[in-house]
Amino acid sequence: MNQTLTGDLPPAIQSTVDWLVDGARTVHQPQDVLAELCQRLVAAGLPLHRVAVFVRTLHPNVMGRRFVWRPEAGVEVNERPYSLLDEQTYLASPIALVFDGQGTVRRRLADPECPNDFGIIDELRAEGVTDYLIQPLDFSDGEVHAISWTTTRAGGFTDAHLAALEAIRRPFARLAEIYALRRVAATLLSTYVGRSAGERILEGRIRRGDIERIRAVLMLSDLRGFTGLSDRLPGERVIGLLNGYFDALASAIEAQGGEILKFIGDGLLAIFPVAADPALACLAALTAADTARMALAEAGAARAGRAEPKLRYGIALHLGEVLYGNVGSATRLDFTTIGPAVNLTARLESLARDLGRDLVLSAAFAAHCAGAVRSLGRFELRGFREPQEVFAPAP
Predict the structure, then answer these.
(1) Which of 45, 367, 383 is closest to 375 using CA atoms?
(2) What pLDDT score was predicted for residue 111?
(3) Which of 46, 49, 52 is CA-nearest to residue 13?
(4) Which of 8, 99, 169, 263 makes a 20 to 30 Å CA pair with 118?
(5) What is the per-residue pLDDT across 274-295, written as a single tens digit (0 to 9) for each?
(6) What was the pLDDT predicted at 371?
């Protein structure tokens, strides 16, 4: 009997449908939604062996996320890169057919006549699977995602099992779309404005002038002679050099708990907020700068071996108080830092170029470095009345 034709679902299945329609409020993470869904279905009598959900996402490096439930192991979550789309294992898989809009795919592995037309068939048979079903999860914007179900029950899924899974599919797709949209919003905000700023925006801090005073280490880095490189090299090579430069800085900054606030042409502004001990923030920033310098030196040596241009850069570190929050026009805001501390960091970065240094430190920063620095002297900096003492890491 196909119960989707009558709408007469068993009470436990109808309760699960209602739970999904109501937003699965007993849980708050997508993996927990899948775990409880599977537990409810098993309790309702569905002989589930493995359930997998694949949701594509909007991320610069990740094509999608895969959630796999097993009775003994719970839910495992992993990410898939864009390169997967070009792999033969994907192109010859049932999920590729679903993504291509060809609808539900079923393979009754217990049937001797079952075609062995997908690579996953042998894998499933080795697990004792007797039936495999993959369904589209249709989002409201037309995107197609997927959910697959397997069982080891002799004879596979019954018509009643299939009716229950079909009844589950649409409300589950709506809920999956909500979670996917939340993740896309968080990813885009993190990618374009930074993790901490993105979290604040999602919390509702979006009013112009909504700012706070924080103490932080500021890092400002800039490439030297980039305009000349842009004139001499093809645009694609310029972008490749710039991305490699930012990669070296970003990975080092993020590894030490810092956050990139913005890219400014060929420059970068990052902060390391002071939690309690400013010396710890200074150490984190200095470690990040040293790690980036080593990475850039290695990349420079490799480029020199290929007779490619050398990248010159400067980094300035300063500890100070800044205003952190929303600044801009009525219709276009930027989550950033402003204040004299930012201006001083910018002047120090320019001074690094004049001194032929790739890293300089302010006196406020150096005061927390306990002998690991040496003075370069006092210098007049535009916009500041008093000469500023400037430091560099000790040799």
Answers:
(1) 367
(2) 92
(3) 46
(4) 169
(5) 998 999 999 999 999 999 999 9
(6) 79
Q: Rounded CA gap, 376 and 351, in Å?
A: 11
Burial of 307 from C-beta contacts in 10 A (0-12 / 13-18 / 19+): exposed
Q: Domain 201-393 in CATH: superfamily?
A: Nucleotide cyclase, GGDEF domain (3.30.70.1230)
3-class secondary structure, 373:
strand
Sorted by sequence, the CB contacts under 8 Å of residue 68 that are 6+ apart come out as 50, 51, 52, 75, 76, 77, 78
Give me the residue spans of the domains in the chain.
3-192, 201-393
Model confidence at 156: pLDDT above 50: yes
The pLDDT tens digits of the residues spanning 344-353 come to: 999 999 999 9
d(CA 300, CA 304): 6
* C-alpha distances in Å from residue 87, one per residue of 90, 93, 94, 256: 5, 10, 14, 35
Question: How far lies 165's CA from each of 13, 36, 120, 162, in Å?
Answer: 9, 15, 21, 5
* CATH assignment, 3-192: 3.30.450.40
Start-end of H helices in 235-339: 235-255, 278-305
For the purposes of burial, counting CB atoms within 10 Å of the CB of 124, is it exposed (0-12), middle (13-18) or buried (19 or more)?
Answer: buried
Q: Are 51 and 149 in contact (CB under 8 A)?
A: yes
Cα–Cα distances in angstroms (integers) from residue 386 to residues 120, 357, 361, 378, in the given order: 71, 22, 17, 9
Which residue matches tokens 């899924």?
157
In the structure encoding, which two tokens stand for residue 179, read together?
A: 């979670």
CATH topology identical between 3-192 and 201-393: no
User: Which of 7-11, 44-48, 121-125 shows the lowest per-residue confidence on average (mean pLDDT)?
Assistant: 7-11
The residue count of the chain comes to 395
**Span 310-328, pLDDT tens digits:** 889 999 999 999 998 888 8
What confidence tens digit (pLDDT) does each residue in 46-99 have? 999 999 999 998 887 888 999 999 998 999 999 988 888 888 888 889 999 999
| CA-closest candidate to residue 69, choices 56, 52, 46 | 52
Answer yes or no: is pLDDT of 370 > 90.
no
